[in-house]
Every structure is written in C-alpha cells, then in structure tokens.
Amino acid sequence: MDQAAFTAFVTSLEDIFASLYLLDVGSMSAAQKEAHQVALNTAYIAMLRAQNQELKNLTDKAVKQAGQLAAATAAMQAQLAGLKKVAQVLQVVSAGLNVLSSVAKLFK
C-alpha cells in the first residue's frame, strides 16, 4: 500500500460515513434508528482514526491489514453509490460493520 492507496482508503471511509450521515432519520423505524446509530458511530470512529493515522508510522503487518481492509471498504463504497433508500444503505453497511470495526481497532 502506498500513500495514494492509503488516501483512497480514507476517502472510502469518509464516503461510507457520509452515506449514513445523510440518511433521513425521521423516516426510520425504531429498529432502523438503532442500527443506523451503531453503524454511524462505528463508521465515524473508523474514519477519524484513519484520518489521524500516517502510513509511514504503520508496521508492515498493519500496512498489510490496511490493504485488505481498504479493498473491503472500497467494495462497500461502490455498493453504496447511488443508494438512497434507508433500508438499502443500512443493509450494506450492517453487512460490512465488522470491516469498519476492524479499521477502528487497527488504528487505535
């Protein structure tokens, strides 16, 4: 992973967060609101920790893990592109919540 790939990784996390942030919470059911809040919090922490990380300070193992997580977040970002329905966005992000949690843990 080089600096350009790391920057793209951070951008995909920012896009995932934005997809969640821009959802209309008022149109959600109680269960959707709870799932949204969990996903939004996890995405926010992952995004902030990645933004505050510098590639040059990562160990070789962390760089390898970041590369794998970058591929997963890029796939999630692509799935979210163009989705507007709350249920669809929550379904995609909920399926990838473990990836976002892994990002947050990696950059702790």
Key descriptive features of the protein:
about 110 residues; mainly alpha; about 75% helix; elongated
Describe the structure.
- The protein is mainly alpha-helical and 108 residues long.
- The chain has 5 helices and no strands.
- The longest helix has 22 residues.
- The protein is elongated, with a radius of gyration of 14 Å.
- The protein starts with a helix and ends with a helix.
- The mean pLDDT is 94.
Short description:
It contains five helices and no strands. It has 108 residues and is mostly helical.
Q: Output the helix-strand order.
A: HHHHH
Q: How many separate helices? A: 5
Pairing-aware structural class of the strands and helices?
mainly alpha
C-alpha end-to-end distance: 19 Å
How much helicity do the residues have? over 70%
Query: Would you identify the regions where 5 or more consecutive residues have pLDDT less than 50?
Result: none
Gyration radius from CA atoms, angstroms:
14 Å
Shape verdict: elongated
Largest sheet: none
Secondary structure: number of strands: 0
Let me know the average pLDDT. 94
